[in-house]
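Final report, closing paragraph on structural work. Over the funding period we assembled a curated collection of sequence-structure pairs, and we close with a single example.
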Amino acid sequence: MTRLIVFTLLFGVIDFYLYRVVKFLTRNQSSVVQYRWLLMHVGLSLLILLSFAWVVAVNINLPYDRSRRWTITILSLVQGIYISKLVAVLFFVIDDIRRLLVTLKEKVIKQKVKPLQDSKEESNTIPRSAFLSWTGTAIGFTLFGSLLKGFSNKYNYEIKKITLPFATLPPAFHHFKILQISDIHAGSFDNKEAVSRGVALMMNEKPDMIVFTGDLVNNRASEMDEYMEVFAGLKAPYGVYSIFGNHDYGDYVTWESEEVKKQNLNRLKEIHQQLGWRLLLNEHVSITKGESSIALLGIENWGAGNLSRYGDMEEAHRGSEHYPFKVLLSHDPSHWNAEVCKHYPTIDLTLSGHTHGLQFGVETSYFKWSPAQWFYKQWAGLYRENKQLLYVNRGFGFIGYQGRVGIMPEITVLKLEREYLL
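Its predicted structure, as stored:
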């Protein structure tokens, strides 16, 4: 209920700002036209707020089923609308700050400011800028349009192929191909055929080994019921390995009891086993090819922020010291800087996910940006610290916003190469 009140107040402030702007932009229209625009703005705002209230107060903790997909869709639309509105409001706030500063200047130096030509306000007031108002409105509509278009991108899988040279890699593993996926979030899917196409894309790459770096579900193990057959199709000669992510522990929903929550996690462990995936829980395994072996380590979720820490790096690393090459699966990329680089310099490659690239951003050959970088130093793609590498997968699935803008769902193919130093 507290969350509902806070967001309602926030949305109310945003809508009040926009009400003033709509009134200004329609000032030259007839009173009837202006009234219709204002009525439409108020009516849509109330409809959106009521939809949000229903989602948060009534339906958000229901077990996931087909009816709740409508709940998630409504929540996504509300998010998109108010993110767009918030961006537009920023321009209006800038304009209000401008007007305030000009007003203060008038009062301080006793200088009258000539009003703008397009204003009907009284001559002793500072008019709102039509340019800033129209710019904010245009950017808000553009952003909302891109978010709507993003709904069609949620199954638009991109295959990222990266070659990684290592001097410590045993020669037998030269050209060894690891396929990584992350953040499946099965509870968000609504198109089984599209997900199946994604799995087929993976198998077409003919990887030597497949790794999954956490968040199989949003919260409940039952979300996988419909997709067991699909993901059981993931096979590789050297096995399929997996870890837990922060969502897999069920920490974000209200359970009937701690025992029920524990049963959910145990069921999720069984699901990994039934899929044929080797779930790594603070441990390591040996990957052997010919007469050479490398270590694959997997820890439970460990984040540098406020997320619960279940991972135990010391336990996972113990006994792996003699391996010449080590790969770590760790869901949250903040773990890399916080612990791996500082205390485990012999971890050659860390594979993470978690951020989704915030499912929103811009990526070109020369430029990469997303709001995700405000929260995570490493948020998508390849990073290097001395001789250690980190790769952050952008996520196979989605959560919250039911789409992708600029940051597409990812299938990563990592080819390991033996680097011969001269």
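The chain is about 40% helix and 15% strand. The radius of gyration is 26 Å. We thank the funder for supporting this effort.
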